[in-house]
Amino acid sequence: GWFRRLLHKPKPSSAESSLNASRSTSSSPSSSSAESSGSSPGTSASRSVRPSPVSVSDINASGSARWAKSYDVCICHSEVDLELVEELVSYLESQPESFRCFLQLRDATPGSAVVTELCDAVQNSHCWVMLITPGFLRDPWCKYQMHQALAEAPVANGRTIPVLKDVDRKDYPKELRNLYYIYMALKERSFKQIRDTVVRYLQELCRSSSSGTE
Length: 214
Hints:
The chain has helices spanning 2-7, 14-27, 31-37, 44-49, 56-60, 82-93, 104-107, 114-123, 134-138, 140-156, 187-213; strands at residues 71-76, 101-102, 125-132, 159-164, 182-183. The protein is of the alpha/beta class. The chain has a domain at 70-209: Rossmann fold, CATH 3.40.50.10140. The radius of gyration is 23 Å and the shape is globular. Residues 69-198 form the TIR domain.
């Protein structure tokens, strides 16, 4: 009897079908939106997770929490990787957000102590990008930079962004094992991932700052 009733159940009209379809679409993000949220901030999927999104114009606004520090990004790297780091800095500084990057050989004050310059840069940056390469792992100075950034992060509420290049997972520094990293296979794609990560952090920073003042 139930099967016969099911067969004779009246079908919804086309108007009702379209209405139900539109409701189901708006209540759950599409798979394409979910995939895009991992690579670019501000997509429809990320908006469903984060209410009241912060736009790029809000990040660049004069009263933004971004300007509380001198730099958006501090780059920690080995000297042998300077050429790649210079490409990364050029990429970030040419973005619409005009990221302010600290590059030690370029921005350190002549005559100032190396350690002092490093500590000041770490304290006055929102994010710290660590380019972890074989040269980074061999250099004691790079390990010192890493420890300084990790020590400063809880106090400064900053974001440490490890970037692995030509390094096996087993050689990933144990001090960073609790942090997700970016693996640099394709340079252009990795640069974009770094840029998107910094943008998301600045969005979170501006959002928390605005909610704290309300």
